[in-house]
# Entry
Amino acid sequence: MSFVSFEFAAFVAVCLILYHIFPKRRRYILLLAASYAFYVIACGGYIIYILLTTVTTYAAGLVMSRFWEECDRQIKDPETASDRAKKKAIKAAFGGKVKAVMIVCLVFNFGILIVLKYSAFVISNINLAMLTFWHSTDFIRIPSWVLPLGLSFYTFQSMGYIIDIFYRRIEAEKHPLKLALFVSFFPQIVQGPIGRYKDLSATLYEGHDFDFDLIRQGALLIMSGLFKKLIIADRVADYITNSVNLYESTDGGYLLLALFLYSFQLYADFSGGIDIASGVACCFGVKLAPNFMRPFFARSVSEYWRRWHISLSDWFRDFIFYPIAVSKRMMKHGKWLEKHVNVFLGKRYTLYVATAIVWFTTGLWHGAEWRYVIWGLLNGFIMCLSAELEP
# Structure
């Protein structure tokens, strides 16, 4: 069900009417039913994957929170309150248990993502290596998985929730239906933004009264998104497609223009979809995270990426970049390099490695092909080089 279809408009209208008919305290249930209905219409039986993610995320979150609660209870016990060594041992023991549960949940859910989205890419490269070095063809049969709708988005959103519980930034959601809604909220399931539980839950579960100003604001966002997608992106796409398909007979100036316009087509299509998602959510009183902030007005490549797909950039920064950059092992390697190789390299080591890993992952996020990996690493290289040359 496309965001720019009459079917989607009718679906949203019906859901909005039912939302305000439903009892105020139970309106989140209506949103959950609407989200599952949307997913079944779009994907049919593939809803099993999002259900697996929901169940494992809910169970892991509860277990992790209970471990932290027991840890706090034992630390506050009068017998251990004054014993620093014992308190440290208790924290380490329960921290290890919480980390083990988190790792199991992460491996399971990212495992589903990797198998469905990247197994064909990995196997094709294995087959290519076998053909190159051992002259063997079709060493491993390449599977033809169907990629469920929004798999990357709801997986990253759910695993962000689990990691936030590990770092004690949030408490686990104890109501299974509310957690299910957080994972599957239909306006953002297609292309984000990737929500953080602390922010999204503030408006997602509360029953909102009818508010004409919110409806008007949501309608304006939806119209903005439709304008971007239908009037700009789709029209520009025709020119780009014709130029690329007929590149042998097209003048270089027209191809250069097509290359230039392609950036604006991507922006109009993606940010238009986000505007529609944010507008629909706004009509229900739900506030989604901002995902674009005038990226083409950025003054550097790094600033550009802080303004483009903000929720994904924030996810990579908080859950990949910082944990790697400040990890004890990385700091140890940096100090060794600083002492035995070069002071400059030692100080930059953690920054360069964390940046390379983030942008390798960013490339894979956009597509399971080497050209996306190279594109990601190239952006990371430019950002590091820009940082060094900035003075």
Remarks:
- The chain has 14 helices and no strands.
- The CA atoms of residues 138 and 319 lie 37 Å apart.
- The radius of gyration is 24 Å.
- The chain has a mean pLDDT of 91.
